[in-house]
Write a structure and sequence with these properties.
Strand content: 15-25%
CATH class of the largest domain: Alpha Beta
Order of helices and strands: HHHHHEEHEHEEHEEEHEHH
Distance between the termini: 76 Å
Number of domains: 2
Bound molecules: 3,4-dihydroxyphenylalanine
CATH architecture of the largest domain: 2-Layer Sandwich
CATH topology of the largest domain: BirA Bifunctional Protein, domain 2
Shape: rod-shaped
Number of strands: 9
Largest sheet: 7 strands, mixed
Radius of gyration: 38 Å
Strand order of the largest sheet: 1-4-5-9-8-7-6
CATH superfamily of the largest domain: Bira Bifunctional Protein, Domain 2
Length: 338
């Protein structure tokens, strides 16, 4: 009998199809295909009327068995899929190989800052932070910048309004630290700074600085030198040569800049050091008495030193990075090298 053969084949094809079902949606499609009113099984029941009287009991029995078995397997899988966690009710195949997770890594600037922090913590410095949106008072006035100082010019500073700006250096955090604590204070102050400069390989509108400050009775320039040399030797290597050049900053007196021997040419002169054999790494000096007066420290009683360095520059000099913009482009070919 043809119909008995068809019943067998239907059972077989259902078995094959249900094996492939992974989610509720395809299971529902299978239900419609086999069990709905116009589905394959119901159509076979319709064909029952064409079967001869004597064959009817046998064919009817087979058809009932087919319908029950299809229904049973459908119910079982439905229950299983619904109990699987997750919104999409997808069956989890535990035999599949796991997905590889890509591990991120710290940005080279974060790594450099971490290293700077570790060195200064070892030298007895704590860490203090201040806001990036700063007032003219903290960024300039309290730091002894005269009202007509060129750094106040709109060319260099991003002003938000007349009295607020994006800080152009981390030195205002010195003022915030001193107005919040009595001496002795010894801290480094890392953070972002902003300058309204033409963007090029050497300058960017945003970069990072680390400020340092130590105030107590009898703090000397020799201690400043000792601390900075110790830092530079730990960071760049113990065979490093250095020099301090006189310089000027409104908030320190005397002021200096620290140079180290060029790591590329070891002092002979090359493109990196523009032929001089030296690389400038930071600005520093003894805190100007005017700054002490502004924060309410007695300049007769206390002395202190301060320094400030650019983190991008410090890392450029250590790793020979050719362009400051590379720090901010998030190109993995660059970032993965560190
Ligand atoms: N604030 C200075 C700058 O942005 C860097 C600096 C120089 C910081 C001397 C200091 C310092 O604390 O003593 O160029």
């Amino acid at each position: 009998m043809d119909i008995l053969q068809t019943i067998k084949e239907t059972d077989k094809s259902f078995s094959q199809e249900i094996q492939k079902v992974q989610d509720i949606k395809s299971l529902e499609e299978l239900r419609v295909k086999y069990l709905s009113r116009k589905g394959i099984v119901s159509t076979l029941f319709d064909d029952l009327k064409n079967v001869s009287r004597e064959d009817k009991p046998l064919v009817g029995k087979s058809l009932n068995e087919l319908r029950n078995s299809v229904q049973l397997r459908f119910d079982e899988l439905k229950e299983k899929l619904e109990s699987v966690s997750g919104k999409d009710h997808t069956l989890v195949d535990l035999s599949l190989p796991g997905r590889k997770t890509e591990l991120g890594s710290k940005h080279i600037l974060t790594q450099t800052l971490d290293e700077i922090k570790t060195i200064f913590k070892g030298l007895g410095f704590s860490i203090f932070e201040g806001p990036e949106l700063e007032s003219d008072y903290y960024n300039f006035e309290a730091l002894n910048f005269p009202p007509d100082h060129p750094a106040r010019d709109m060319q260099d500073t991003f002003f938000v309004n007349k009295s607020y700006l994006l800080r152009t250096h981390t030195s205002p955090v010195q003022v915030r630290l001193m107005t919040s604590q009595e001496p002795p204070v010894r801290a480094i102050m890392p953070g972002k700074v902003y300058r309204n400069e033409a963007i090029s390989a050497r300058s960017y509108c945003l970069f990072h600085q680390v400020e340092g400050l130590y105030v107590d009775t009898d703090v000397t320039f020799a201690e400043l030198k000792g601390t900075l040399v110790s830092f530079a030797r730990q960071f760049y290597g113990s065979d490093l040569k250095y020099r301090f050049r006189p310089s000027f900053f409104p908030f320190t007196e005397p002021s200096a800049e620290m140079d180290i021997t060029c790591f590329l040419c070891h002092g002979k002169g090359c493109r990196m050091c523009k032929g001089s054999g030296w690389l400038e790494i930071l600005g520093c000096g003894m805190v100007d008495p005017n700054v002490f007066k502004e924060v309410g420290y007695d300049p007769e009683k206390y002395t202190g030193y301060a320094f400030g360095m650019g983190i991008e520059r410090i890392a450029i000099l250590k790793y020979d990075i050719p362009d400051i913009r590379m720090y901010f482009e998030n190109d993995l070919r660059f970032l993965k090298q560190f």
